[in-house]
Specification:
The complex is a heterodimer of chains A (274) and B (297).
Chain A lengths: L1 H26 L8 E10 L2 E11 L4 E5 L6 H9 L6 E6 L2 E2 L7 E4 L11 H12 L3 H14 L15 H14 L4 E5 L7 H15 L5 E6 L2 H7 L2 E6 L2 E7 L12 H13 L3
Helix pairs in contact in A: 3-4, 3-5, 4-5
Chain B lengths: L2 H31 L14 H13 L1 H34 L1 H14 L8 H7 L3 H26 L3 H8 L5 H39 L4 H10 L3 H29 L28 H5 L9
Helix pairs in contact in B: 2-10, 3-4, 3-6, 3-8, 3-9, 5-6, 6-8, 7-8, 8-9, 8-10, 9-10
Classes of the chains: A alpha/beta (274), B mainly alpha (297).
Amino acid sequence: MSTSSETATSTTSGGLSKKQTLPAQEGGAPARGTRLTLRAASLGRPDAPVLDDVDLDVAPGEILTVVGPSGCGKSTLLRTLAGLLSPLGGEIAQDGRPLAGPSADRALVFQEDALLPWRTLRANVELPLAIRGVARSDRRAQAEAWLARVGLAEHARQLPHRVSGGQRQRAQLARALAGSPRAVLMDEPFGALDAQTRAGMQDLLVEVLRGTGATVVFVTHDVDEALFLGDRVALLGAGGLLAVRDVPRPRDRSAHDDPARVALRRDVLTSFGT
Amino acid sequence: MTAAPLHRRPVGRYALRVVALAVALGLWQLLTSLNVDLWLRFSQFPTVADVARAFADRLSGPDYWTDLTDSLTRIVTGFLLAAVLGVATGVLVARSRLAEDLIGPILEVVRPIPAIALVPVAILLFPSNEQGIVFITFTAAFFPVLVSTRHAVRALAPVWEEAVRTMGGGRWRILGSVILPGALPGIFGGLSVGIGVSWICVISAEMISGQYGVGYRTWQDYTIVNYPGVFVGMVTIGVLGWLTSTAVELLGRRLTRWLPRTSYVPGARVRAVRPAQPQPSPKTAPEAEEARDEHLV
């Protein structure tokens, strides 16, 4: 008799917890980042290794920016974290589990135009939701909400080549976040934009990321962008990771004469030998 | 403000086309009715009036429509088979090294053989003439479709596929959301070529081994020295070929509307080309350019 009652309670509690956790996960209300770890990792293609012996720990919910000169392996690092490249050696893990290929859990935002040109902006943003199996009307509404959040509500039904480069990158950001990934990997997403658009995009990014709780790895060759966006900055040089530095907060564009920030900026630049 | 030129232009162009056709027919009638024999001999040539009379006779008889439907059935069957199998094989060969190694050599050896030279093969292989003709038609269109599909798939930007993979999309999602829509412009290039070659081959095959069909009838008329009949056949082939390739062309344009078109497109509305055009109100212009993406989702 006691066993049967136990089974009954466990079933009900199981059913309840399912009902309770589902909507919370769907809405993305609680901060839900993920931890990305590299241990003694060497990265690159087998015929052209780029980075050696990288040890890096990206904490849940933090924004880690990665700076370094062209060709130092920033993109390689990011593509490996995305699961598009396998490490040549060492260990790469998400929350302690080794990565096994690409996953919707780690969205990648590309520098190039990675929107599908035959899909409207909305259809592009719908794509990760469609892959996850979200019903049509539902994903349409969600995609439109994301586009509105990045300021593209009026362009939802336009094709990518009909909007500006900055708008395309905003749409890419919306598409990456629509899949509610726990990590967002960004590969010089604003690299092709002019200075003004770029500053606006940085503000937008900070604004949009707030509340998603996603872990962000943001690759850039622009030291100021790295210092503005990052909670920490990883410096990548020829062959490997040079250093990881904390960035003083609060995030404030006008505080560029703050002594701590000036010192850090000088440090970063000198560590590349500039 | 744009109503008058927008309307007048296409009408004017269509009128021009009709006039050009009429002038060509008039010249034909003139040369043949006057029995002009210079270096080219028009005296043996049927006049336009003869051909028109023969055409009218044919239209009232039962055979013409049987010929027409027979030829159309053959070409539609062969062409659709070629479209489906050509695209499938093209994607397979472009995406899989194993498939390329296994079937690539066979395809490369068979490809240079003119489809019409496969008539003996068709006669040996297929129990009925009908199937043989469809086979010839199929082979004719298959290779253009295959080759253009293969090229189009290989030319796709890798970043599109990587984007879908990092969204958790698998093989079939990549096929449906990236490869097929992305390769569509190239595929339609192959289909356009394919439908033309298909017509050449279906007519030739009918001439050699058909029973009924426009090609068969044309050849029959030739053997009994019914020249106006031959011309009726030729005109029929021309019109059917034109209609089918236009259908393929229109379907292709409909499905690849997303392509950024900056250059001149025959039959398309000419706008935004003239530099002096006043700026359209920002509300209406983007809406006019909105695309329907539903069929690709």
